[in-house]
Amino acid sequence: MARQLKIDVRKYKPEGGESHDEVLARAMKFIVKVCDKYIPPNFKAAETPKILVVTHGGFISEFLNACRVFTGRALGTTSDSANNGGIYIV
């Protein structure tokens, strides 16, 4: 739909929904909140807690993009390619 309307796919917002950029911002806030709550300031990799997150594929795609942003890599796909019910270890 974004391409038909000649709108940047990351900015396109379906009626009553969120754009990819809005979901990305929500995912980034979520990661910061989880890290602040569960990961101590001077943690060692071996001490990092295991955290289970259950959500839908669209959020998973942008969660993975948020991980890319936090590690200085380029954004990935916007095709909602993450599977609902998929398992991703980050």
Please give a quick description of this structure.
This protein is mainly α and 90 residues long.
Task: List the topology elements.
Blueprint: H1 2-5, H2 20-38, H3 57-70
Helix pairs in contact: 2-3
Q: Cα-atom Rg, whole angstroms?
A: 15 Å
Rounded mean pLDDT is 85
Q: How many helices in DSSP terms? A: 3
- Low-pLDDT runs of 5+ residues are none
Largest sheet: none
How many individual domains? 1
Based on Cα principal axes, name the global outline: elongated
Tell me the total number of β-strands: 0
Oligomer: single chain
CA(first)-CA(last) distance: 31 Å
List the helices and strands in order.
HHH
Q: In percent, how helical is the residue content?
A: 40-55%
Structural class: mainly alpha
Q: What percentage of the residues does DSSP assign to strands (E)? A: under 5%
Describe this structure in words.
The protein contains three helices and no strands. With 90 residues, the chain is mostly helical. It has one domain.
Pick out its properties.
mainly alpha
